[in-house]
Design brief:
By secondary structure, the chain is mainly β.
């Protein structure tokens, strides 16, 4: 019979091991890691556990790279200090524990909500209230400081789609300005980072396609003409299209953006499919593996849309 203290330790190890292999692609299997107390341990092929860190500092959001070669995490930080204590992302060798980089993150968020690997050298760090940053564990630099909602990385790891209304984060906003813009950022594109205002590392692609870093903020005098996103984003498996549901002109629309990028040049093919009156709250959206059907699930009905023929089927 195990002592209750032992049961508590076992429970903590299982939970941390589960979150320590978080990736956006494949799950790393070459190294097994655990957080014991405040230190990271790795499991040898022999089954023995080896201690990788010895600094005694609390660690959070441990994430193992897809190849199992690196581990990143952050230590606790106090944003209320004067001057504020910065968020520091540490990357270590998963086999030796040697520090590769310590990357200070410039942003205005007060806490970290998640860290996920995009590929074997880029990771996305999400924070409160719509902040997202990308760090590069090879160069040891922060490459993006983005602000918005529903960040979704494409399956190939090259593009990030999200939306933002460009309104002030605090204070009243007139109804005519409450419209959403769809933005794209390329993960391999770097630009100077401003901790308060983000960076120009985004491109508005819907409803208008604008130059990098530019915003076309205009009032919608006809409130029904606003674009308000009502679902998450869903990438096709080939990373060439992204779908979402919006309200516009008193109807629900499934909007599909074909996205082509070459270097920094992005072209957009916009297609919209009318789902009918706004009578349902959207709960999920997903692509069929072949790309020939998109399923939109609402709380009152379901739509099946063929993005090639434009056919829309509805069921309750």
């Amino acid at each position: 019979m195990l002592h209750k203290d032992c049961l508590g330790i076992i429970f903590i190890l299982v939970i941390v091991e589960a979150i320590s292999v978080t990736t956006l692609g494949q799950v790393a299997k070459k190294v097994q890691v655990e957080l014991r107390g405040q230190e990271i341990f790795a499991k040898e092929p022999s089954g023995q556990w080896r201690q990788l860190t010895r600094d005694g500092r609390p660690k959070e959001h441990i994430a193992l790279s897809p190849s199992g070669s690196q581990i990143i995490y952050h230590t606790t930080f106090d944003p209320y200090k004067s001057p504020p204590e910065p968020l520091l992302i540490t990357a270590i060798n998963a086999h030796t524990g040697k520090t590769i980089w310590q990357i200070p993150v410039k942003w205005a968020a007060r806490f970290v909500s998640s860290i996920e690997w995009i590929n074997d050298h880029l990771a996305i760090v999400r924070g409160e209230a719509g902040f997202a940053s990308i760090v590069n564990s090879i160069t040891g630099k922060q490459t993006h400081n983005l602000f918005g909602a529903d960040f979704k990385v494409s399956p190939d790891g090259r593009k990030i789609i999200y939306h933002y209304d460009f309104n002030p984060r605090y204070g009243p906003v007139s109804e005519e300005y409450k419209t959403d813009y769809v933005l794209i950022s390329l993960t391999d594109r770097s630009s100077p980072v401003d901790p308060e205002n983000g960076s120009a590392n985004f491109k508005a692609v819907y409803p208008d396609l604008l130059p990098w870093g530019e915003v076309k903020k205009e009032p919608y005098r006809d409130l029904d003409s606003r674009h308000q996103i009502k679902s998450t984003f869903a990438w096709s498996t080939d990373s060439n299209k992204v779908a979402f549901v919006e309200t516009n002109e008193k109807s629900l629309w499934l909007t599909v953006l074909g996205v082509e990028s070459k270097d920094e040049d992005i072209t957009i093919d916009k297609r919209r499919y009318n789902l009918g009156p706004i009578v349902s709250n959207i709960q999920a959206i997903s692509w069929e593996a072949t790309g020939r059907q998109i399923k939109v699930s609402g709380d009152k009905e379901i739509w099946l849309v063929n993005p090639i023929t434009g056919a829309v089927r509805r069921s309750q």
